[in-house]
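Repro:
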Amino acid sequence: MSSSICWQCLSKTLPQPLRHGSIQPRLHIYLPTLAFSTTPSVQLPLPPKRSTGPKVMPKKGTKSLVIKKGKFQAENRARRPAPGERKALRKRIVLSNVNALEVKGMENIDVENMYDRRMEGQVLRLPGPIVDQLRAVEAFKTTQGWGLFQSPGTLMRRETVDMGKLIADMSKEGRSRKTVRRVLVGEKGSGKSLMLLQAISMAFLKGWTVINLPEAQDITIGHTAYQPLPSSSPPSYIQPTYLANLLRKLPTANPHLETLQFTQPQSSELPIPIPPNISLARLASLGASDPEIAHPIFNLLVTDLLSPGRPPVFLGLDGLAHAMQPGTGYTAPNLKPIHSHELMILEWYFKFLSGQRKLPNGGIVMAATSQSNAPKVPSLDLALSELEGPIVTRAGQTVPKKERNPFVRYDERVLNTLKSGVQVQRLQGLSKEEARGLMEYWAKSGMVREKVSEVFVGEKWAISGGGVVGELERAVVRMRV
């Protein structure tokens, strides 16, 4: 059947073929574009002007949003800590653990066994009265792990027995009343603060008078009130509140002050009259009651304690580097930092440590350094190195003493304080016998589950860097795999 449409007409309605058949037709899409201009197409209107007329109250029945000025603070129903509560919690000392096992057959340290060589490597219990006295002088530290055991005990290492022998010999009648000046040094965790605690406890056992400055940082950090001392040349500054707290703790730390009567003559320079036949404990409490009279009462008390016929005196200080800083947290009237030796309490202590003043009835002046919390004092490092000389380690290596650095400015006050006559005692790691005795005590307390054998002792002794007490406790007691 023939089509009614002519082929010639049909060919005119179809699109014409491309000249090149290999090229496919492309689809071009053109989008509308705008001309480039730096003027924004839409400009924001200006903010409406604030009305200055009277406020119009909303009509009755309409809702209005009212937002109070200021930030919304949720009500805190928790009780805020009282002043000083957080500091007391941070410095709290826990000396017993009811969950720890009781070590049967454990002896107390006393005046007889504190210098007995047979006690080396054993742990002795601190008696209750001595613990109260040590609390009063703040000899315990929060990092010493007393709360892991049922009762506080101390290891009788070789240096401890030597210290007990020295205190026992100085306490004998007829002995020469000499003053021993000593500085404890050693690496971190070697037991310097613990050695100072052991020396204080032995002095308590012998009836000595102990005056301890538990942390030199508390004196120099700038947290206590201070004032210049009148008519002092070179200038000196007193800290009344710190001296009052120190006087408040002396009667508790030294109960024998109740039996000692004040024998010094009355002076017109005292701010208050001193009652006759007053005990030294009552005199200390009198100075602690008012910080304004703490300084003259402290001087009067020390003068009486150093008079003939009084017991020997033990002076302790922990954190020696803080007390040797050229600048403290206090400021002089000329807006310059006050030197640590210009603080009266530290100046008084350093006179005994340097040998400028003596203890007439004999005694010990001991200071302990710190490696965990100590500023860098090149003068102190140089002075201790010159006093100690070359150091011989446990491995047999010799470390030469330090030489003066021509590019470092040294403090002559520090160098003059630590002159000849000051003994430097370096505490190193425990021996394997001492470490074994300490581990056996930990095992009896329930803190060590493994068997304390030669292999176990040798392994932990090597891990702790050759018996360093702090590292040994961390590796044996505190580490849990």
